[in-house]
Specification:
The protein is 40% helix and 33% strand. The chain has 124 residues and is an alpha+beta fold. Strands 1-2-3-4 form a 4-stranded antiparallel β-sheet, with helices on one face. Strand 3 and strand 4 form a beta hairpin.
Length: 124
């Protein structure tokens, strides 16, 4: 039997351990990738919520400061608008749950505001 080309029991055991470690590493990597993909989807949804809010705030942003809050299922948003000379700045904070943790993402956008028109001259 010395001349046969078979694997020994030790070689088979080592190969099995190496294979098991590789499979476990691949499973852990796949789970991490799934978690990141889920979080990415949630952050993208938060960006959509903020973008929608900015679109609704833009027409009246230069009129004055304000704020509010809204909830959409498991996603909540708060917003505020501040007026500065020549600009309006809007902040939207979107909060959601991902992986049993509350996550918060803040978005900011600003728009130029035209200065108010000067008063009309008095009639002669």
């Amino acid at each position: 039997m010395r001349g046969s080309r078979a694997f020994t029991l030790v070689e088979v055991a080592v190969a099995t351990v190496v294979l098991a470690v590789g499979v476990l590493a691949a499973l852990a990597s796949a789970r991490a990738a799934q978690r990141l993909a889920t979080l990415g989807d949630r952050v993208a949804r938060a960006a959509e919520v903020a973008s929608s809010r900015f679109e609704r705030l833009r027409p009246a942003a230069c009129a004055g400061a304000g704020g509010g809050a809204a909830s959409h299922g498991s996603t909540a948003e708060t917003w505020s608008v501040a007026s500065e000379p020549g600009a309006a700045i809007a902040d939207v904070v979107v909060t959601f749950v991902a992986e049993n943790r509350v996550r918060t993402v803040r978005f900011r956008e600003s728009w130029p505001c035209a200065p108010p028109a000067p008063p009309a001259p008095p009639a002669p």
